[in-house]
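P.,

For your records, the input lines for the assembly:
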Amino acid sequence: HANGHVCVGCVVVLSVIEQLAQVHNATAQAAMERLCSYLPVKLFLKSTCYLVVRTFGPDIIKLLNADMSADVVCHALEFCEQVPGQPLCHLYPLPKVAWKFTLEKAREIVKGSPTLKYSRSS
Amino acid sequence: ADICCLPFLAKICQEIKSAIQNSVPFKDVDSDKYSVFPTLRGYHWRGRDCNDSDEMAYPGRRPDNWDAHQDSNCNGIWGVDPKDGIPYEKKFCEGSQPRGIILLGDSAGAHFHIPPEWITASQMSLKSFFNLPTALTNELNWPQLSGATGFLNSTSRMKENSIYLRLRKRNRCNHRDYQNLSKNGASSQNLERFIESLSRKELLDHPAIVIYAMIGNDVCSRKIDPVPEMTTPEQFYSKVMESLKFLNSHLPNGSHVILYGLPDGAFLWDHLHDRYHPLGQLNEDVTYDQFYSFLSCLQITPCHGWMSSNQTLRTLTSERAEQLSNTLKKIATSKKFTNFDLFYVAFDFQEITKKWQKRGGQPWQLIEPVDGFHPNEIALLLLADGFWNKVQHQWPHILGKENPFNPQIEQVFGDQGGH
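Structure tokens returned:
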């Protein structure tokens, strides 16, 4: 898994956003803003956070509003990928509906997203 | 994406990368390997430089002309007593046999720690991330709070002190003489890449106590099948001997080297697997078993051998760890070196678990909650306590004698310039 650390990073951040929204009974957007507001200005941490929110926020909001788990969101946004022939890596219990179907539905939701036009490395 | 591609940042990025790769301070004007800057391998890792424009002024050196005119060894003791014209360093430190502590370790020795408040939404606030910049520029390590070289007050209200603070308390002339040369992922097999970062001049400096503590990465790997990756006793023996020969050509005579054994990491699964990971505590949906599986699946687990539901694999890993510990024992009892004597101390996690349980603690409270792998600050300080008591009991000469002038040093020089 060339991007194992990227995948773990995505799942952890998405988990924190989901749980911030749950704990504060807020929207995903508000949770992301809250998380960025907690970060220090040093080392561009706060500005990087707002940049990431601006870039990926709209897709994340659509997917979380569709009750997708952090695993599904990160696979749909291609921070995680299942290498052919390798097992599916997931942190949370798998969705009740078949993973394949869930992921297809998630990809449908973010289809045409400008974000996914760029290769993830940029 | 790669901010280091920006032309005006390229140079500083290169310098930072070089500092981290070579484990030497990023900010070190006189290039004596000691710094006035905390992170990026600065004084959080080695004694703070007291004069960063003089390469001959650094912690651990023998005093220049008894430091009558300047503090050449940064222990805060210098000048002349007006009552009798005797230099303070001569009066208070001569014959007290000062010594430094040097740790050659891995992420455990550097005290790798990801604060759980960074990922616990229910407790998150503006204060949660205040230490993130410091942690990031220390590679997520906290050597300033480690069991070997920590100099800050414990954040877990433990009464036990680090080995360095105990040496300093025993002889205030040891102030600032510490080096934490640990690295994430370090093992006997790659120590040669950064052992040169050790700073000790055989003829100019005081003797040192060197702790060799490669406690996991020789049996730990992220591979799906970690067994072929494990260091064999023969490979281990060969590399440890290479490192000892290097130390013998660098350490002042009268130094001591202590080989620290490997733990039985099966402890991790036994005490954590069915507990909830911080990410799973809010909705009770992620245990350490699932967390370990996720990391192993992505092949980024720090230690597949012990962080596994496969009992056979855990047992194999513990067996190899014990073989490597026995290799260290064999070396310590059979090899002699001119500049240092050699000892072996076991990594006795069971002992500190019992000690902790006597205080009403639980074993799982000794492990870093976010990575579910590293010993946490409590464990590191309990291990330091066990190490100190064992060495004091069996080989007291290693630690040196109590300096009778400690009270006078404190009276004249206070905190000796702090850390």
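Two observations worth noting. Chain B has a mean pLDDT of 96. Strands of chain B lie at 100-105, 178-182, 208-213, 255-260, 340-345.

Regards
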